[in-house]
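The authors assume throughout that readers already know how a fold can be written as discrete tokens. For illustration, here is how one protein appears when written out as sequence plus structure tokens:
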Amino acid sequence: MNHIDVERMRLKGVLDEWLTALDAGEPRRLRLAPDFRYTEDGQEIAIGTGTWRTFRAREPGGHWFADPEHGAIEFWGVFDEMGHRAMAAIRLRTSGRTILEAETIVTRQGAFFEPDAVLAEAPGFHAVAPSPLSRASLIAAVHLYFDAIERSDGTMVSVRDDCRRLVNGVVDSSDDPSRVERGEEHRALTVSQQITDGHYAYIEALRDRRFPIVDVARGLVVCHLVFDHPGDLPRAGGDLIIRSPGSMIFTEVFKLADGRIDEIWALGSGTLPYGSRGGW
């Protein structure tokens, strides 16, 4: 086992300790740095509060993404929160077995909510890339995706026509037209066509972009960012689907190959006050 693989297993071990402590509601089990910080949906809170008090059990399954070069790992899973299912992304930054910082982004029941998709196995998504790109190239490709949405110009980004985008577990691109509800026909379009046609024009800005985890070997990029919805911007067709100002914190994972985006997963918080920061 090479150094990178050893580091991946070390990170997985620290993550398992966190999840075990969370299941038990006992953060005192963890090895935390003296200046440890913790946020939930961008708000800094004390460890042991927030979802540490409301998460009752973790469902089997989920996914984890690691950056051995930077001591970071993120877990996506499903939890029982006071009798209701909630999806959560939990990010840790470590030094050895010590946790330096952590953040949680929670997705609760809403219009887009399919927890089983987050639990499903996806071996191809985690497969090692045959021709790995550099860290800088991977990050640049993801920046172009968000820039394209801000400018409603899908030609800016290199993305497969059959790229599947999952938003809170729901297929939101290149879907089977027979499965798409009336008024949501854009979900059957390609990602680039959706962007160019203005189906995401109601998003004013995709800001505070952070890249806490880049798995170069697997072509995976985790980006945390904030979506701004001013409330007065229509999408294609003139629909005002969001009618009041607000922001959302999202974590998105991109699978890339040969400089092209092959698949996108996204988990987002509920609506927060407009202009909310990401917390980091």
Remarks:
- The first strand starts at residue 32 and ends at 40.
- The mean pLDDT is 96.
- The first helix runs from residue 3 to 24.
- The chain has five helices and 13 strands.
